[in-house]
Design a protein that fits this description.
Elements: E1 2-11, H1 16-32, E2 36-52, E3 55-67, H2 69-81, E4 85-93, H3 102-121, H4 148-151
Antiparallel strand pairs: 1-3, 1-4, 2-3
């Protein structure tokens, strides 16, 4: 049997439970054809680079599959019929990646960066926690002084 990665994008208006049901349906198709899914990853709701069928975002799901080619053909056929899936791609791979995929590592790294950034601010707002009025916090409503770049 050969190894494959199958990634599909589900419509943005689906609930996470419906997306999980789509992944489970794909898993059932593969198991019925004497294949097996070695790993399933839900990458979450992500923005698309361009609109696809009026969708600006999509739920991403990746399956690592160990199955014969005819099972993959059936999986792609069923995926193509499903109206909730807006795009899919299946790639034959030489070996499976151990641990989380690149996308999952990227999400974790982004989460850590956000936590570090929030820790540096000490939990303050973007302006340092100061409550400013429209005039920049100065009393009397005096206009702010102009910088040289703005005057030119």
């Amino acid at each position: 049997m050969a190894l494959y990665e199958h990634v599909f994008l589900a419509r943005q208006d689906l609930a996470q439970a419906q997306v999980d049901a789509l992944a489970e349906n794909a898993n059932k198709i593969i198991q019925d054809g004497n294949g097996k899914v070695t790993k399933t990853e839900a990458w979450g709701l992500r923005s698309l680079a361009y609109r696809i069928a009026k969708n600006r975002k999509a739920h991403y799901v990746m399956l690592e599959i160990d199955a014969p080619g005819d099972v993959i053909a059936e999986l792609e056929r069923q995926t193509q019929i499903n109206e909730d899936v807006i795009r899919y791609m299946t790639v034959k791979i030489d070996e499976t990646e151990q641990g989380p995929s690149v996308m999952m590592r990227k999400q974790e790294r982004d989460r850590e960066r956000r936590a570090d950034r929030d820790g540096e601010r000490g939990g303050r707002d973007r302006d340092g926690g100061r409550d400013r009025d429209r005039d920049g916090g100065r009393d009397g409503g005096a206009p702010r002084p102009r910088r040289e770049e703005e005057m030119a």
